[in-house]
Amino acid sequence: KEMTVRDALNSALDEEMSADPKVFIMGEEVGEYQGAYKISKGLLDKYGPERVIDTPITEAGFTGIGVGAAYYGLKPIVEFMTFNFSMQAIDHIINSAAKSNYMSAGQISVPIVFRGPNGAAAGVGAQHSQCYAAWYGACPGLKVLAPYSSEDARGLLKAAIRDPDPVVFLENELLYGESFPVSAESLDSSFCLPIGKAKIEREGKDVTITAFSKMVGYALKAAEILAKEGISAEVINLRSIRPLDRPAINASVRKTNRLVTVEEGFPQHGVGAEISASVVEESFEYLDAPVERISGADVPMPYAANLERMAVPQVEDIVRAAKRACYRAAKSVPMAATA
Amino acid sequence: LSSDTITVETSIPFTGHNIDPPSRTVETSANELMTFFKDMAEMRRMEIAADSLYKAKLIRGFCHLYDGQEAVAIGMEAAITKKDCIITAYRDHCLFLGRGGGLYESFAELMGRKNGCSKGKGGSMHFYKKESGFYGGHGIVGAQVPLGIGLAFAQKYSKEEHVTFAMYGDGAANQGQLFEALNMAALWDLPAILVCENNHYGMGTAEWRAAKSPAYYKRGDYVPGLKVDGMDALAVKQACKFAKEHALKNGPIILEMDTYRYHGHSMSDPGSTYRTRDEISGVRQERDPIERIRKLILAHDIATEKELKDIEKEKRKVVDEAIAKAKESPMPDPSELFTNVYVKGFGVEAFGADRKEVRTTLP
């Protein structure tokens, strides 16, 4: 059986709202419009306007209201139409949500989920194309999840809603319409995935490739190409950016002795940088090659199709980096900067 | 002491915006007036002692004192219950006391000790007492207002007949997110009372230099407001009772409390570069909230001047004892560095400054 990521998210929301009356969803266009990306489709009809709340376009205001409601013990799901708009509310996500349990020595817990599409879409320019994994992943007190497949989406969203801490849930617009096979187990309403655990999507022995969200699909495609050339790549779907599954990553690198990290976000201080540091710290003596990082280019997202393609990782970038790590690449000549 | 009704006129009439203001005639009792006096004397003494502890370097970082504004905390508490919520900014010590918090855990928190109300992990700006409806203690100017409206949202969602008082200063009154959240509170009829404690200076900026319209009770436009003498505890009580009834029936309302802080903005501010010493001493002489209650008690022969002085002496002693005890409280255990980061830490590894030296699994 197959299911789209959109339906996976929608069914997870539906089941958790049905299971716990304290769960409600708020955000722009989540109700009457049925969700800007239709993730909340049908929920208004089923749960009514008291639990499916259309807000005005005021991220700082409604995010603060959501966090306040969580202080009181409700379990809000705050939808950002895209995570780019969460910048308007980042103070509430970090200062009001992530730090309160600590500052109050456990008196004020904040069981809230901030969710919405993250990362680059297609052709929407710089202000609407950015990955926030590294931004939120840097903050203690937050949990940050990034699903790839439909099972990920269902299992992780249900885990996020049930979790007693604030969770940033990074979806990807370009995956919403993609279908994935789903197990019978994952369709059960009790299904839930563990937070903080990565998933080995494909086993391999020559090189480890870490990725999250849409880039997992690219990494899997790269692994297929590499297999044809006799390189066995292990693909790790991080699923959880914070906590980061350092043990799984290091165990894999200790087996393959090589690492390529893949992300859509900016390279500097990125998720790949953190993974690379972890492997250097924990598994330095196992490395047979320098760590390779594939990331978005170090520029705001351009609009023109050819430039946009250059600004986000492509499958061939991952293939090339993996070959380099395995000392199988032809000497590549870096493209000259022509600015 | 008697609980018989005493009727008192507020210092000045209330001014309403889009609403008929309540009557100036307030009912009180000998009992209540004596409680007001005792509680305000304790607050005043606590803040003066905190000033000394700060100067003795026993309190670190930021420390914002409430002396001068006591009538707001006291009058508000007299009108509401602990099921109603209060949330405020960083000037939070006395609101914590008003909610039933103790001197000992206050001073222990100020000095960063284990027995502080936030186990020494919050500090001056982050006091909480959730079991009696006090939600902090927030350090980012204005952010507490949407949070407070979120509490009111949760009260309405839970179908409870309680309200939230979201406190902010005249400085925060210009923050955009206040208007964002107020719009939603009004759209959704949330039982939220926005309390602008107008002490006339946002740090060192006089209200007229920061606000085109310093009539903060009118700034909600479509939301009704009331201007209150925030130095008169009975006026505050009357206004809060009125506001609670209004909010439960009709949604949000703004209360502008005309008040004054005697101390500077924080301990690094002598409080004298942007206002005159005459202004401060004038308020002390003419509008002091404790003196107002003292006069009422004497005028109604509830207690003698000596008895009131004795109460103040007693409060000084109680405060000193709490400080002595708080000084005995140990610093938090180093293991507390890693507690409460999460409710559920999944046993994930967390690191200290040198991860090869300090690492732990999160509880």
UniProtKB/TrEMBL annotation, chain B:
Function summary: The pyruvate dehydrogenase complex catalyzes the overall conversion of pyruvate to acetyl-CoA and CO(2). It contains multiple copies of three enzymatic components: pyruvate dehydrogenase (E1), dihydrolipoamide acetyltransferase (E2) and lipoamide dehydrogenase (E3).
Region of interest: Disordered: 266-285
Name used for this protein in its record: Pyruvate dehydrogenase E1 component subunit alpha
Obligatory cofactor(s): thiamine diphosphate
Residue ranges annotated for the Dehydrogenase E1 component domain, each copy included: 39-334
Presence of keyword Oxidoreductase: yes
CDD domains to which the protein is assigned, alphabetical: TPP_E1_PDC_ADC_BCADC
EC annotation from Swiss-Prot or TrEMBL: 1.2.4.1
Recorded superkingdom: Eukaryota
Subunit structure: Tetramer of 2 alpha and 2 beta subunits.
UniProt xrefs under Pfam families: E1_dh
Start-end of Basic and acidic residues biased regions: 275-285
An individual GO BP term: pyruvate decarboxylation to acetyl-CoA
UniProt keywords, alphabetically: Oxidoreductase, Pyruvate, Thiamine pyrophosphate
